[in-house]
Design a protein that fits this description.
By secondary structure, the chain is of the alpha+beta class. The chain has 3 helices and 5 strands; from the N terminus they run ββαβββαα. The strands form 2 sheets. Strands 2-1-3 form a 3-stranded antiparallel beta sheet, covered by helices on one side. Strands 4-5 form a two-stranded antiparallel ribbon.
């Protein structure tokens, strides 16, 4: 059984497989054209992939992780922040059964949550500690 792999325009392996006969190879060559290469990429070991979303770069002989979508990461931070704010909304209502000191602590906590997006890195957020 012989191996083949397919490389995209950026140099990443996008498919691989095996063939037994030249007729199969002819089919794969017709389907993938110049992107088809025979054998296996140098130093490629599928089990070494750090995650399912990593891709093998053929020329650099290394696994590359997925690009991080910063906007999506900030959206996750805002979603978590909004959940935390919603969970403590009742504590700042005028008729909440807490003392003025406790109310002030909760107001500080909520202000810290609202300021969370002023931090620089959405992947390294330092969350304020809940007063409870």
């Amino acid at each position: 059984m012989k191996s083949y792999y397919v490389v995209d325009d950026e140099g990443y392996m996008v498919a691989s497989g095996h063939y037994n006969h030249d007729a199969e190879l002819k089919f794969y060559r017709a389907r993938h054209g110049a992107c088809l290469r025979l054998g296996l990429p140098r130093n490629f070991v599928p089990a070494d992939a750090p995650s399912m979303s990593h891709r093998w770069h053929v020329d650099r002989c290394c696994w590359d992780g997925p690009a991080i979508d910063i906007a999506a990461e900030w959206e996750k931070v805002r979603y978590q922040r909004d959940k935390l704010l919603t969970a403590c909304d009742w504590r700042i209502l005028p008729d909440a059964p807490i003392s003025l000191e406790e109310r002030q602590v909760w107001l500080w906590y909520r202000a810290s949550l609202r300021d969370i997006t002023e931090q620089l890195d959405p992947l390294a957020i330092i969350w304020p500690e809940s007063p409870t």
